[in-house]
């Protein structure tokens, strides 16, 4: 198992690479937007690869979003797929081994149901997965939450059964979707061969009366029981890459989360 973190979207990618080294992470998962937009990364490709080599840090990416690969509007959907292909090309050139992908639709749900959206999402996922494989790059489709027109964890069976794509399992998104920590552990155990990547972030627990939002809190600052959720990791049943994903540019919180994760997995 290797650990890293998702770069903050308004943080210079060079700082994220350096902090990954400083904090003892195996890799950095660069958010491909803002300072790390594909155009910028392509222009700075030598600088990026030199920085990764200097700090002995591996590279994963979080592909930009929202990219509406499940949109019912054809040109919107095909445009998103083509843009993501360009991102995959750049990421692969930099040596990135995998990238997180959101299954976004953002369709008007009063007129489009989930089955209709899935019928447009699945071909896009297959196309991107095949393209990524040609570049020796792995895409990992992330469970989101259905309120934003994306697949939540309860709808992922259709992706797992109808494509060969890997999955990113996000703990915060799963909690928002109503999944308990024991259910998270069961999901990882059952689908371990397809879940290649984890996103760890805390959130306040629905049992406390909180309605649940995508907070991306440091580990221990919310209500999730990570010891239970990560039981398959602790027992060696699941193995892959594991990113801490926080909505803060303060690396002190990242350091705290890393120490807490190390204690949980010890």
What report would you give on this structure?
The chain is of the alpha/beta class and 266 residues long. It contains eleven helices and eight strands. The mean pLDDT is 94. It has helices at residues 13-22, 38-43, 45-55, 74-93, 114-134, 157-162, 171-176, 181-190, 226-229, 231-234, 251-265; strands at residues 2-6, 27-31, 58-62, 98-101, 138-142, 166-170, 195-200, 241-244. An eight-stranded parallel beta barrel has the order 1-2-3-4-5-6-7-8, surrounded by four helices. The chain has a domain at 176-191 and 200-266. Helix 1 runs parallel beside helix 3 (45-55) and helix 4 (74-93) runs parallel beside helix 5. The protein is globular.
SSE topology sketch:
Blueprint: E1 2-6, H1 13-22, E2 27-31, H2 38-43, H3 45-55, E3 58-62, H4 74-93, E4 98-101, H5 114-134, E5 138-142, H6 157-162, E6 166-170, H7 171-176, H8 181-190, E7 195-200, H9 226-229, H10 231-234, E8 241-244, H11 251-265
Parallel strand pairs: 1-2, 1-8, 2-3, 3-4, 4-5, 5-6, 6-7, 7-8
Structural class by sheet pairing and helices: alpha/beta
Regarding quaternary structure, what we see is single chain
Portion in beta strands? 5-15%
The helix fraction, in percent, is: 40-55%
Low-confidence stretches: none
Task: Write a compact overview of the structure shown.
This protein has 266 residues and is an alpha/beta fold. It is built from eleven helices and eight strands.
């Amino acid at each position: 198992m290797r650990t890293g973190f998702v770069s903050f979207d308004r943080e210079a990618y060079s700082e994220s690479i350096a902090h990954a080294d400083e904090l003892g992470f195996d890799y950095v998962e660069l958010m491909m937007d803002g300072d790390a937009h594909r155009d910028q990364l392509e222009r700075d490709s030598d600088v990026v690869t030199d920085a990764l080599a200097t700090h002995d840090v591996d590279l994963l990416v979080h592909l930009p979003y929202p990219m509406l690969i499940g949109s019912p509007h054809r040109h919107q959907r095909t445009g998103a797929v083509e843009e993501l292909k360009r991102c995959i090309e750049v990421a692969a050139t930099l040596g990135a081994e995998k990238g997180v992908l959101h299954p976004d639709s953002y369709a008007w749900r009063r007129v489009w149901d989930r089955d209709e959206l899935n019928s447009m999402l699945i071909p896009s996922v297959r196309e991107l997965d095949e393209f990524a494989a040609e570049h020796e790059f792995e895409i990992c489709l992330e469970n989101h939450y259905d309120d934003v027109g994306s697949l939540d964890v309860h709808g992922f069976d259709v992706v797992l059964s109808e494509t060969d794509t890997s999955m990113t399992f996000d703990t915060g998104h799963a909690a928002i979707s109503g999944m308990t920590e024991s259910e998270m552990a069961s999901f990882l155990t059952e689908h371990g061969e397809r879940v290649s990547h984890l996103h760890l972030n805390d959130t306040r627990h629905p049992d406390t009366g909180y309605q649940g939002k995508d907070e991306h809190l440091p580990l221990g600052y919310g209500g999730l029981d990570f010891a239970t959720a990560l039981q398959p990791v602790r027992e060696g049943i699941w193995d892959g890459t594991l990113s801490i994903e926080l909505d803060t540019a303060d690396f002190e919180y990242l350091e705290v989360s890393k120490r807490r994760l190390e204690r949980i997995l010890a």
